[in-house]
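Work Package 4 report. The design task specified in the project plan requires that, given a folded chain encoded as structure tokens, an amino acid be chosen for each position. We show below one input record used in the internal validation round.
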């Protein structure tokens, strides 16, 4: 398992272990148990210590954080809203568009296999996002007028045609018109097309 550097010369893993030991009650046991499930689900997970004392588990981006409060241990998934949760483990931060959290109270047990499935999903989502970001960086060149393109995102996804009228707005967004073989025209953002 990889480890991320942390303050005062201690590794993140040692700081997380110290936090678990310092809690010394059901919260420490719970955080320790969840940590072991995370590491079992993703052997390549990176342990980090961020924001002046928050355990973080990452794989090509943050998977989740582990916080301890008086009455709960909270595991917040950075992209939880994008994960399938058939076991309905997420029970907190349900109104947001991005994060989801699992609040574990004293005496509560979490379905280990469902939790590990969430961890694996989150890691896969991060890895896919990293691959997509590198593809987007390669294709971020401004499309040329007259080039053939395929729309890969947005309302017109799946359509193709010829690029016309490439313009950059005041806000820096590159827009273009796509002319299909049928003569139908539509506008889209350049980031939505692949040439």
């Amino acid at each position: 398992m990889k480890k991320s550097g942390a303050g005062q010369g201690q590794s993140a893993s040692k700081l997380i272990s110290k936090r678990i030991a310092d809690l010394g009650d059901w919260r420490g046991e719970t955080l320790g148990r969840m940590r072991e499930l995370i590491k079992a689900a993703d052997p390549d997970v990176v342990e980090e210590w961020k924001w002046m004392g928050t355990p973080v588990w990452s794989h090509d981006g943050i998977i989740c954080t582990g916080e301890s409060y008086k009455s709960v241990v909270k595991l917040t998934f950075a992209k939880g809203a994008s994960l399938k949760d058939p076991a309905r483990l997420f029970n907190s931060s349900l109104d947001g568009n991005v994060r989801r959290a699992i609040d574990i109270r004293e005496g509560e047990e979490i379905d280990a296999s469902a939790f590990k499935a969430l961890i694996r999903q989150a890691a896969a989502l991060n890895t896919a996002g990293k691959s997509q970001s590198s593809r987007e960086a390669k294709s971020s060149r401004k499309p040329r007028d007259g080039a053939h393109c395929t729309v890969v995102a947005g309302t017109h996804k799946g359509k193709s045609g010829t690029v016309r009228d490439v313009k950059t707005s005041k806000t820096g967004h590159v827009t273009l018109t796509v002319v299909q073989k049928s003569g139908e025209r539509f506008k889209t953002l350049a980031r939505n097309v692949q040439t």
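The radius of gyration is 22 Å. Validation will be extended to a larger panel in the next phase.
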